[in-house]
Amino acid sequence: MTDQNSEHFLKNWHPNIWPPFTQIKTSNPQLEVSHAKDAIIYTKNSNQELIDGISSWWVTLHGHSNEYIAKEIAKQAQELEQIIFADFLHPQAKKLSERLSKITNLDRLFFSDNGSTAVEVALKIAYQWWQNKNDKRNQIIAFEGAYHGDTFGAMSVGERNIFNESFESLMFPVQRVQWPSTWIDDDQVYNKEAIALKELENLLQIPTAAVILEPLIQGAGGMNMVRPEFIKKVANLVKQYDSLLIADEVLTGFGRTGSLFAFQKAEIDPDLIAISKGLTGGFLPMGVTLAKEEVFKKFISNSPLKTFWHGHSFTANPLGCAAANASLDLLENEPDKYLKFECRHLEQINKIKKLSHVEKIRICGTISAFELKVEKNSGYFNDIGKKIKALSIEKGLFIRPLGNVIYLLPPLCITEKQLERSYDIIYQILLDIN
Ligand SMILES: Cc1ncc(COP(=O)(O)O)c(C=O)c1O
Q1: What are the respective helix, strand and coil percentages of the chain, to the nearest 5?
Q2: Where a domain ends, among 333, 359, 394?
Q3: Ligand 1, atom 10: nearest CA belongs to which residue?
Q4: Residue 270, domain CATH
Q5: Whose CA is nearest to atom 16 of ligand 1?
Q6: Atom number of ligand 1 nearest to Cα 58
Q7: pTM of full prediction above 0.85
Q8: Each residue of 83-126: pLDDT tens digit?
């Protein structure tokens, strides 16, 4: 039973669907989509065309309904759609493992279903690895503002905030280090980095199972970017104090930061990497945790206690692997699409840069972000984001600001005209609301 008041809100929503990350009482109902092609989403009822400015939650890498990936999935579906991976190996998984291992220099791939599980697996591997070495360690270090997913382990290492407050008592303790976010013309960056590095070094005095970070960009935390040099110094400290480094590349992987992986741009050598989102080009849900061979080796034993007892029904699903192999083909064939994306943002952002209520402009690879100056409640719950989202949808652009942080993270296929239009729409809205 629902009361009259809530029914009023409910009538605009589908009666059988519980939407993700949404308070329906304060949100606009989902738009019904009929189809999507390249960078454009076509809605059903209003026949509206929307530029997908955030790659549908950062997953749609090459564009919607990419014909090559769709064909490869269809081909695979007629040969082998699913198989129990504990007992059977299949060609697409072999091919993908060999390719990703070669690209990353990490030998072992553990497959799961999404970004959260890829992180969960990395944390469990790191934690158990020390036990398998008879050196049990409890301390895990993460960064303030981090987001690593919504399962319990991933949630525990993420920033503690309103999103996970209900579960506070069930999460494990994690030590935190400041994240020295930076932007164009930031003259405080070296200070902030020095403070963070000092904090990290202090914490590392206690034997630490793992340090986890989002290399170069904290996404959900507000598109907060750091310099590659900072990430490199973090990695050096982690090595110096003999801990494991987990790079959560769920967002940053597959060209998003302007190199194939962010860890490569930062020139670091993580022990474990979590990937998902763009892995299948955004076509199918899949997560992978990559581990160094020396990590893997400590799980080989006659003792069941040393086994990594983790698995999912759809582990290494052949359709997902086919999509991932096809997506890698596209990335390999046209590297300029991600290598040269940053210049495209730089050209477009100039107009916005001049607005007096805009600050902290930052760009990294395919991602550009800035903040709107607000008097209070800077952050996710600032209502300005919702307002800008609604106005931009009216004008033909789909974005999802993180409160007063406005960002663009488009698919690689976005045309020059579409990108220019996206910036124009945002610029016009910023003028109107000022
Ligand atoms: C850095 C990072 N890690 C993990 C996740 C969780 O991924 P998923 O939503 O696929 O569970 C996300 C999702 O946005 C992310 O940005």
Answers
A1: 40, 15, 45
A2: 333
A3: 115
A4: 3.40.640.10
A5: 251
A6: 14
A7: yes
A8: 999 999 999 999 999 999 999 999 999 999 999 999 999 999 99
